[in-house]
Amino acid sequence: MVQKILAKIGSSPGIKTLIFILSVLISGILCSGFIAEITKEGILDWAIFYKTVTFWLLLGYSFVIYLYNRFIYRMEKSISKYLDENYCKAYIMNACLPEIAERYVK
Predict the structure, then answer these.
(1) CA gap 47, 24 in Å, rounded
(2) Would you tell me how many other CB atoms lie within 10 Å of the CB of residue 9?
(3) Three-state SS at 41
(4) DSSP state of 43
(5) Does the reported pTM lie above 0.90?
(6) Using one digit for the tens of pLDDT, what is the confidence trace for 39-72?
């Protein structure tokens, strides 16, 4: 189930764009909330930043964005291997020819 969702995300530019737009909106809201939470009487109180809920939400959200970007990078890197003609030939030789040889022998 998760693999199907990841494959759908990776193959759809529309879904990637939607995720990007949502990530910008969510990060903007979290950052605004964070600043509002550490502002006391018009002055930023950086001493309490780690005590705020929004700081930890931002930290968690940053980790989720990191995982998403790592997934996209790995997927695009695996696709770019097929741009190399030698890689494609080797892949065909390893993946397809043994199966064809087995069918021929039978």
Answers:
(1) 27
(2) 16
(3) coil
(4) E
(5) no
(6) 999 999 999 999 999 999 999 999 999 999 999 9
